[in-house]
Here is the input.
Amino acid sequence: MEKMKFAVIGYGGMGGWHAERLQKSDVAELAGVYDIRRERNELAESRGIHAYASLDEALNDPAVDAVTVAVPNDDHEEIVVKALEAGKHVICEKPVTLTPESLERMIAAAKKNGKIFTTHQNRRWDKDYLAMKLIHDSGMLGEVFNIESRVHGNRGIPSDWRKEKAHGGGMLYDWGIHLIDQMLMIFGFENLESVYCICDNITNKEVDDGFRLDLNFKNGQRATVEIGTYNFIAMPRFYLRAEKGTAIIQDWREETRVVECTSWNESNIVPVKTAAGITKTMAPRDDMTTKTYTIPQPESDVHDFYRNFVKAARGEEPQFVTHDQMRTDLKAILAAFRSAESGKTVPIR
Ligand code: NAD
Here is the structure.
């Protein structure tokens, strides 16, 4: 099967990542890149990559079947719509865009031109998230009550467009979209009922530089997603509570540790004594009623995103990141902003 040829628009951090992946791909190849800044195009050329002289030149190249858009968030719509109108399939970086109206215009352009349009939710291939999804979907610990998902750093927001509201900056749009999408993949896009969010403005007053967001699902299931950019001690990456036990992933490079409750009733509870008091309620269980084990990281290959895209463009399978999922991801983010502003829980429907 002939490889699908891609142009990458925006040759910055993520555009560079896409270009590199496309050069090594088994299903696609890189026709060239275009960046609005000359020095980025020159850098591409110095790496042996063809750089187009303009966006139009890239979009009018008949050899190009598809376009990956990796420019700052506020420029996604214009380039995506132009590429679809030029008859190209399109992958747009996350967050797909900033408003529902903008997303509907993009989807309409895809439908009108009969092209595949999706967004790059690459963190669906994160092994830590996949371990949480495995526990949920397999039922190995019974019903999952809630999952807490955190990514903590301590360098504030990078000193680029991410600091500015006009470009769709801030951590909800930047990282929030990944963590929200992961939780919706686990608990079900259709089950999201309401959100409650508190934003941080520690190093940046213009946009959120961190947040804590509760996603409330049907049946009382709850996910908490949290991004911090001023955390000099990071909390665990994932913490899951379920009917039969608890699972934790300390760091995203690590395996999952599970403590499973094998028998609810205990015969000998040894109270914990501290200088100020005594507690039986909070005394740890011994291994007579629990077992502890690790779950190895699931296998995953992020290039399956491109493999799916190429097959979807050929009508061989449905696209993995659907338009409805993109709508709900964005809805959740906008509801989170409204909740942070109002201090209230915001319903989704
Ligand atoms: P960046 O600033 O490193 O790169 C953006 C590039 O786009 C710059 O080189 C800039 O010159 C170029 N550019 C700006 N406007 C342009 C235009 N109109 N036409 C052509 N080029 C233009 O930013 P980045 O970190 O690469 O982020 C780009 C996009 O990728 C954002 O939407 C971001 O959210 C997303 N991103 C996704 C992930 C992920 O894991 N999926 C990771 C990082 C960034």
In short: The mean pLDDT is 97. Residues 9-15, 34-37, 40, 55, 70-73, 75, 93-94, 120, 122, 160, 174 surround nicotinamide-adenine-dinucleotide (CB under 6 Å). The longest strand covers residues 144-152.
